[in-house]
Amino acid sequence: MHVTHLESALDGTRYEADRSRRPTAAVRYLDWALGTLPDDLLDAHQCTEVVLQFRAEATLGTPVRATAQTGDADDGPVARHALHHADTDDLLAAARTRWIPRS
Fold first, then answer.
1. Can you give the pLDDT at residue 52?
2. What pLDDT shows up at residue 7?
3. Digitized pLDDT (tens) for each residue of the chain, 103 residues in all
4. What pLDDT does 101 receive?
5. 70: exposed, middle or buried (C-beta count within 10 Å: 0-12, 13-18, 19+)?
6. CA 15 from centroid of its chain's CA atoms
7. Which long-range contacts (CB under 8 A, 24 or more apart) does 31-36 make?
8. How many domains are contained in the chain?
9. Calpha distance 25→18 (Å, rounded)
10. pTM for this prediction
11. Cα–Cα distance for residue pair 69/60, rounded to 1 Å
């Protein structure tokens, strides 16, 4: 299996937070995770499976480090994603995605 490591730095913005300073939607975590994938994978494939595990909350201004490892499985690319607090390295969320070629 060929593995590629990808990383990007992010943080929650005011427009993504509710009154408790938490992200307004769990979808934001998924957006952060998918944002680490290379454009050529996203352009040529469609996601067929997402498994997302929440571990901790990101609040307004939390520095988030998103990482992904991509590799090839028998049926197409797979990726393992992790969102960590950039300062403490605490795991905020982990995900696994599977992809197939676009028709």
1. 94
2. 55
3. 444 555 555 555 544 555 555 554 577 888 889 999 999 999 999 999 999 999 988 777 788 888 999 999 988 999 999 999 989 999 999 999 999 999 8
4. 94
5. buried
6. 19
7. 32/64, 32/66, 32/83, 33/66, 33/68, 33/81, 33/82, 33/83, 33/93, 33/95, 33/97, 34/81, 34/97, 35/8, 35/10, 35/66, 36/6, 36/7, 36/8, 36/66, 36/67, 36/68, 36/81
8. 1
9. 9
10. 0.78
11. 27
The two structure tokens encoding residue 8 = 């990007």
For residue 11, give the amino acid letter: D
**CATH number, domain containing residue 92:** 3.10.129.10
Neighbours of 99 (CB within 10 A): 22
